[in-house]
Design a protein that fits this description.
The protein is an alpha/beta fold and about 475 residues long. Helix content is about 30%, strand content about 20%. It folds into two domains: about 170 residues, Lyase, Ornithine Decarboxylase, Chain A, domain 1, CATH 2.40.37.10; about 240 residues, Alanine racemase (TIM Barrel, Alpha-Beta Barrel). The protein has twelve helices and 21 strands. Strands 1, 13, 14, 15, 16, 17, 18, 19, 20 and 21 form a ten-stranded mixed beta sheet that branches. It has an eight-stranded parallel β-barrel with strand order 2-3-4-5-6-8-9-12, surrounded by six helices. Helix 9 links the parallel strand 8 and strand 9. It is globular and about 70 Å long. The two termini are about 30 Å apart.
Length: about 475
């Protein structure tokens, strides 16, 4: 049976291949451990910049802080000269503590009165979620004797699921009236949107709709000059989609009784029984994706706009002197982090399945209710060649005394059975996996974060809360 091989960044592969690297970090900071690679973050920024500059666009990139709490990424964003998108008072404090000037900070997401009061007069650009926020922000700005730069987040820009965020496009007239009445308190920069979709076609249609709204704003005497397309740019998890397609077919066959079951406890991984057959799509099929953030940004810039005579997004923005803003999170931390855990024991389950128990829980690997369909990288304590053959099917289990705490609900095929003390590396976990789903259940330790940088001598590591170079250790990559 085929596995689900992940794409592994060359720098990460070099770090993992030198067994002393992962083992040395675990000896210092304990297991489990999150590992950050800010150099990869910086390279991801450069890739997006190259696309924007090749298109001749005026632009601003803001790192979406919510993707990770890693301080190393915030510092890398500051050093790269980009902005930062914060969605809470805590994230604002983090950005300011790192040294971000207010002019390079944008506040997004739903905001209450207290947060709006902090933002008014701060110099931070406020991405307004709703008309109440706009009115409250204008009131707070007048009280502070200042003028606040704002974007208006729009929703309902095309077919698709309704969104709980943003001002409905049908209510744009009311927003324009409020903006005109609040000129003394609000500097209206432009419009924004954020889609719960990674499809380029959906984003191009949203741009098309926003351009029509910008035309209405200009006709009303307003002067917007920015279009913010948010984040949601894709990640490249795999080198080829074929193994994932084969695995998905094998899961369907197993659920239909035409092959061995590949899931734990009858989990269907997004499929369902219907009309005597298996329907649906594999949960988290994004892990078969081979297109990253740079490629998806290039596709957006080249996308033809139906409402603009088929001219591309890039051309229309250039010709109308509209500045393109974007707030990538996962695209910037793509491949810039991994999670290390240690095998505690293996055992046989009541149905004969082989369980490999780790010292980490599912919610520190899998975001929300998703299934991470990527094989981990195994680092065995004792070197030995993997035996020839199709591999051993195992289920990775977590360390919470809860039946549901299975790291994966699908079989993982390994060359040889992991042993206690072996290291399991889950790659590409920086985006929303390390922090968003972390649980304090049963008082289990929360993974620390270590920052790793390549050096001429190997790799240097320091704690995420320390500046680079403080208390560093080096390990050879080979």
């Amino acid at each position: 049976m085929t596995g689900l091989p992940p794409r592994v960044h060359p720098l990460v592969r070099s770090f993992l291949d030198g067994q002393a690297g992962p083992a040395g970090l675990l000896a210092r900071w304990g297991s489990p451990l999150n590992v950050l690679f800010p150099e990869i973050f910086t390279a991801n920024v450069a890739g997006l910049r190259d696309e924007l500059e090749a298109a001749g666009l005026r632009y601003r990139i803001c790192y979406a802080h919510k993707a990770s709490q890693g301080r190393a990424f915030v510092r890398a964003a500051l050093a790269a000269g980009i902005g930062i998108d914060v969605a809470s008072p805590g994230e604002l404090d983090s950005a300011l503590a790192a040294g971000f000037p207010a002019g390079r900070i944008e506040a997004t997401g739903p905001k209450g009165r207290d947060f709006l009061g902090v933002l008014a007069g701060s110099g931070v650009t406020v991405n307004v979620d709703n008309l109440w926020e706009l009115g409250e922000l204008a009131r707070a700005a007048r009280a502070a004797g200042c003028r606040v730069p704002v974007l208006i987040r729009m929703c309902g820009l095309g077919p698709g699921r309704p969104s709980r965020f943003g001002v409905p496009a049908a209510r744009f007239g009311a927003a324009a009236e409020l903006l005109a009445a609040a000129r003394d308190a609000v500097d209206f920069l432009g419009l924004s949107f954020h889609l719960d979709s990674s499809q380029t076609g959906d984003r191009v249609r949203a741009v098309d709709a926003c351009l029509r709204l910008l035309e209405r704003a200009w006709a009303a005497g307003l002067s917007p000059r920015i279009l913010d397309v948010g984040g949601g740019f894709r990640q490249a998890f795999a080198d080829s989609p074929e193994p994932f397609q084969e695995y998905g077919q094998a899961v369907r066959d197993g659920l239909a009784g035409h092959g061995p079951p590949l899931t734990w406890g009858g989990a269907t991984l997004g499929y369902r029984y219907e009309d005597g057959g298996i329907r649906g799509t594999l949960t988290s099929g994004k892990y078969a994706g081979t297109t990253g953030g740079r490629d998806s940004l290039r596709e957006l810039i080249a996308g033809p706009l139906p409402g603009q005579g088929g001219r591309t997004v890039g051309r229309v923005l250039r010709e109308n002197l509209i500045e393109l803003w974007l707030e990538p999170g996962k695209a910037l931390v793509d491949h810039a982090g991994l999670t290390l855990a240690t095998v505690e024991f293996t055992k046989e389950a009541s149905d004969g399945s082989v369980l490999v128990n780790l010292d980490i829980s599912r919610d520190k690997i899998c975001p929300a209710d998703q299934e991470v369909l990527l094989d981990p990288v195994l680092i065995h304590r004792s070197p030995a060649p993997d035996p020839a053959g199709p591999g051993i099917g195992v289920f990775f289990a977590g360390n919470l005394c809860l039946e549901r705490d299975m790291i994966f609900n699908h079989l993982t095929f390994v060359g040889r059975l992991p042993e206690p003390g072996d290291i399991v590396a889950f790659v590409n976990t920086a985006a929303y996996q390390m922090d968003l789903s972390a649980s304090a259940a049963l008082m289990q330790r929360q993974p620390a974060k270590a920052v790793v940088r390549a050096t001429a001598a190997g790799f240097a590591a320091h704690a995420d809360h320390e500046e680079a170079g403080a208390c560093s250790t080096s390990t050879s990559p080979s």
